[in-house]
Amino acid sequence: MEGALVSYATGTAKAVLPKLAGLLEEEVRLLKGLRGEIQFMKDELESMTAFLIHLSEKRDYDTKKVRTWIKQVRELSYDIEDCIDKFKYRVDAPGRMRSFVRSLLSNCTPTPRMVTARHFIATEIQLLKIRTRDVNERRARYDVTISTSDDKSGAATIYSPEVHREMPGKEKSKSMGIFRFPFSLGTWKRGVERTTSLRTSQPELVGTEVPERGILNLLREQGTQLQAIAIVGSAGSGKSTLGMRAFQSAETAESFQCRASTTVSQTFNIKTILCDLTEQVGPPLPKKDLETKALEDKLRSNLKDKKYLIVLDDIWSISAWKSIQAALPDNNKGSRIIVTTRNKDVANSCCSPYPGSNIYEIKPLSEDDCRELFFRLVFRPNGTCPPELKRISNDIIRKCRGLPLAIVSIASLLASKPSKTRDEWQKILDRFGSELETNPMLESMRHILTLSYNDLPYHLKACALYFGVFPGAGSIRRKRMVRRWIAEGFVSEMVGQSVEDVAEGYFDELVGRSIIQPVEISLDSKVKSYAVHAMMLEVIVSLSIEENFVTIFGGQYMTMMRHNKARRLSLLPGSDDPSMVNTRSLSHVRSLTMFSDSKPPRVIPPLLRLLRVLDLEDCLCIKDAHLKNVYKLYHLKYLGLRNTGVSKLPKQIGELEFLETLDIRRTAIGDLPAGVVYLRSLKHILAGSTSSFLYGDGQSDWCKPVRLPCGVGDMTSLQTLAYVETKENADIGRLTQLRKLGIVSQREEGWEDLNKSLQNLSSCLRSLVLHNVGSKPSLESLKSISASAPSSLQSIDLNGRLGKLPPWISKLEMLSEVTLRNTRLGKDAIGELGKLQSLLYLRLYDGSYNERNLGISEGAFPSLKLLKVVDLVTIKMVKFNEGAAHKLEKLILCLKGTDKQEVDIQGMEYLGSLKEVELLGFDGPVDNVLAKRVTEAAGKHPSHPNIKMPRRGGTKDDQVVIPVTEAIEIDRI
């Protein structure tokens, strides 16, 4: 907890320093006489920030003494930033004249407005200067100090805060295997994850037989080279237990001449680790104190002629691994190293030096194993759950989401209760957050989960705490969270990287550290949505509330207003007093997030002048009237209105000059106000809808694009523009930062102008969606684009008649995703697409292909992982020749036979990487002939891919998955 507080306060203070620097550089004449005070605050904050960073890295401070001081630094930083933002709001004139007024400030006579603003900031800065001096003096007054001595002997405790992540696009070593168990991992029957040596006895396990056998098989693999096995998983997932089971196995004892194990942990003493390992594999060490180098030599000497097995449990950093690796010799005797870690980068580092090494990624417990473990612990001795407790038991088990540590901890808590009643258990489930914070029986679990958070570098602390804004959410889109981080100011540009790229790196690092869990992953391994485990989320919410990072109203958090200045506000369903948003006690709020079924205030109050993020996604109760004053939120950077009841935006929307993201997707908004073109900071316009395009449904209001006013070419910061219709397609060529463009139009004209624009976007555009949905939909003008067409395109989605593929598409070396509708292509087009070396996804929808047979020839589609053929009434046969699409993992088909011709599929046996076949029906059940033939082919396939199809009598989303291991009668499904 204290480590979290230090790093969070550090990040808060560092965020303010650039604003103070900017205040010194700008508005010079208006701030005459205040430069000294501002410079003083900046210098003091820099000193305090340096001290906080040093404090965070050393971790040997008296937390009780410094805790109050750290909180004061945090709140001071917040208030300084608030002062600067309020000053900017007061100085700027209303409306589109702001930038003009600012440009004249140094030359014009001070207006009453300027005089008032100067008086305000002068008073505020004087008070803040006094507070800054007092806070810094208080540190000296109460002797808030830390040790600065460094131990040169190597005996000191080591903590490495280094940040190491694999950059996107960097390939892992081809000699390294990654295995993800498709089955559950077990856990122990009593106790929690060990914090002592691995050599302690292991209790009874549940469901570990298969993964344990997998580890043992790797240990027995032939080969004389040293190899490593890295077991990766989140806190409490059973990594250490699995590693220890393999270590203690009788087979292991017979296979290795010597074995040793030790726990490394977050902080460790390298000499202690080396001594521990040395004494397990050799004679006792002399009583004299040996230096680190001597211990390394001794351990290497003891191991050099032996086939050994070393288990290193709970490694947190790459530097920790490297400090131990030097003492483990590769003696060509088939030795093995097992490491357990929460960090994928650490796992890669451990395995990369040794060809043939493997990474095991632990998956959550299966539902059946969760029940078995929970019932065995709670209802001893027979493990039988009474009928009246089955429903609440399932609710509790679902909250644990397959995490062994959580199941053991909660089950132990419930087993200790003298009475086992549904009401008692419901109370514990409803207030689990406070139970986790205060109940001694859950203290170990909280400690273990908090360790993962504390290990984060300070620049990731605020990003992780921000998950507390969504306390009851399931999966969340990656882009939504990343854009909110940027709007909050958590992310800064780095040399050679945009702020968006840096934010994406932050997200990838949190995934790699097992803080968040991917929910939806694309075939190119990009996380599209994520979730935070319920137990980790409870810890984060608790930290966020205690440190005044987030204030939550609604549900179990109704009384969570612990501070008089709310900084980030989340309104959950069940909040009885939405009018509280109007109170002046919330004038410091920087983000406001509402959830579905929350009771909204009458309007979004203009009082929230410091608001940067307004996220109302999925709140259908939000109407136009609620946004009456939204244009007055001067500092707003993120406006999320997705899936709300809004039908129009205020005409004055152009006054939000700092707005970066405007998300109006799946709303009834048809036109954007003319003033939107004045939003020169806007990076993302997310409009229209993609869901209705899947089956060509043109009747739904959601499929309509949003019409843009004239002047879009002036919005030169735009990176995303989709899905829209614009009167000036030629203007789009001026948007040289544009990465994603989605144009949907019923007009027959204007596409030639768009061609010219696309040629101007050659170096920046990554994704292109062009849909002509008019009465005579045609995109044939695309064929006229010259060789300077967007060469950097990675995704293309076309709807409209082409007849033939534009020749420039075959030259797109980076193209990984193609989606086609109504293009009326012939078999030559499939041949051209099959030559694209980087193509991962190919989706063919209604009208995209005119031939009866879809044949994939030998060598075609060398990288393809997904093929989707849906609603193509012309196709009666899909055929794969030997050597075609050899990396295809998923095949989705929606074909329908006729009285004269049945549908067929051939060559599935050649798809060696195939994992799943999904069958869809034309507004009804799957074609029986297709289903039977696919099932027969899958049954003969060497990998036995699963078949997924709609359940008979169910909805299109109600699907059954058939693991094909033998012939199955389709009529029984």
From TrEMBL:
Q: Which CDD domains match?
A: RX-CC_like
The cross-references to Pfam families, in alphabetical order and at most eight, read: LRR_14, NB-ARC, Rx_N, WHD_DRP
Highest classification ranks of the organism: Eukaryota, Viridiplantae, Streptophyta, Embryophyta, Tracheophyta
Family note: Belongs to the disease resistance NB-LRR family.
Query: What name appears for this protein in its UniProt entry?
Result: Disease resistance protein RPM1-like
Top-level division of the source organism's lineage: Eukaryota
Q: Where is the Disease resistance protein winged helix domain?
A: 469-540
Listed under GO biological process in this entry are:
defense response to bacterium; innate immune response-activating signaling pathway; plant-type hypersensitive response
Q: Which of UniProt's keywords are assigned here? A: Leucine-rich repeat, Nucleotide-binding, Plant defense, Repeat
The molecular function terms of the Gene Ontology recorded here are:
ADP binding
Q: Where is the signal peptide?
A: none
Q: Which gene encodes it?
A: LOC109727309
Q: Where is the Disease resistance N-terminal domain?
A: 14-95
Q: Which residue ranges does the record assign to the NB-ARC domain?
A: 217-380
Q: Which PANTHER family match?
A: DISEASE RESISTANCE PROTEIN RP, DISEASE RESISTANCE PROTEIN RPM1
Report the residue ranges that make up the Disease resistance R13L4/SHOC-2-like LRR domain in this protein.
588-947
Check the record and name the InterPro entries matching this protein.
Apaf_helical, Disease_R_plants, LRR_dom_sf, LRR_R13L4/SHOC2-like, NB-ARC, P-loop_NTPase, RX-like_CC, Rx_N
